[in-house]
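pls design
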């Protein structure tokens, strides 16, 4: 059975209003046993409190909520959300796992968090200085061919923050795949401050917002290695 909420065309959605409706593939209708199992998890005291404060934080990101009719009025950037949520949770020690390409930005983030009274541990992706050859990367597959190139080491980033027993972790621009490994190995609760996008200034939504104009090629082009993309362009 198809399971894709983005294809739902119902206006009064069952997941939004009490008397709403949903298509045949609606998981609110077809996956009730999973939803009930999830709700059991929310009854665990720590999970319940985490979810409760997260929802409160969500609401506090909008102003004038007492006005009717209400018009959405967002007021807080993500950095403020992270600070306020960490304060609500009583967190003291925050970890930052960041890409070395945004060291300057990571420094700003660390300084702001420290200004708000947090102890900050920041770990760069290149820690260890391990050559990429150790994980089977060939010289021609590196960014700087013919040079030493340290591998990104998200597992070590996670393990270090685990050992330091950070209360809350923040990912900052880890590469696709490296972020997955970090999340697989990190033990503490983790949020994402920004995701890596080398072309859009780390704003990956930009490509979606312009998918019908400047990035319309996303709907037509096939992707592969750099060499394959070059070959297709030459063929045209």
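designed seq:
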């Amino acid at each position: 059975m198809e399971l894709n909420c983005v294809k739902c065309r119902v206006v009064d959605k069952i997941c939004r209003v009490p008397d709403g409706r949903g298509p045949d593939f609606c998981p609110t209708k077809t996956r009730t046993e999973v939803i009930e199992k999830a709700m059991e998890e929310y009854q665990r005291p720590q999970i319940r409190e985490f979810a409760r404060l997260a929802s409160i934080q969500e609401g506090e990101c909008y102003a004038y909520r007492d006005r009717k009719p209400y018009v959405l009025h967002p007021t807080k950037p993500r950095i403020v959300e992270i600070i306020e949520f960490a304060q609500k949770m009583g967190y003291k020690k925050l970890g930052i796992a960041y890409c070395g390409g945004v060291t300057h930005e990571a420094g700003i983030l660390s300084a702001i968090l420290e200004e708000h009274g947090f102890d900050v541990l920041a770990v760069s992706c290149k820690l260890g200085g391990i050559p990429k050859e150790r994980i089977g990367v060939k010289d021609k597959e590196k960014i700087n061919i013919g040079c030493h190139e340290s591998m990104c080491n998200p597992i070590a980033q996670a393990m270090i923050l685990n050992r330091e027993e950070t209360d809350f972790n923040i990912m900052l621009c880890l590469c696709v795949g490296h972020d997955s490994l970090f999340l697989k190995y990190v033990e503490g609760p983790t949020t994402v401050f920004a995701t890596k996008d080398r072309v859009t200034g780390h704003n990956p939504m930009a490509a979606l917002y312009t998918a019908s104009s400047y990035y319309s090629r996303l709907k037509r082009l096939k992707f592969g290695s750099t060499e394959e993309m070059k070959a297709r362009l030459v063929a045209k």
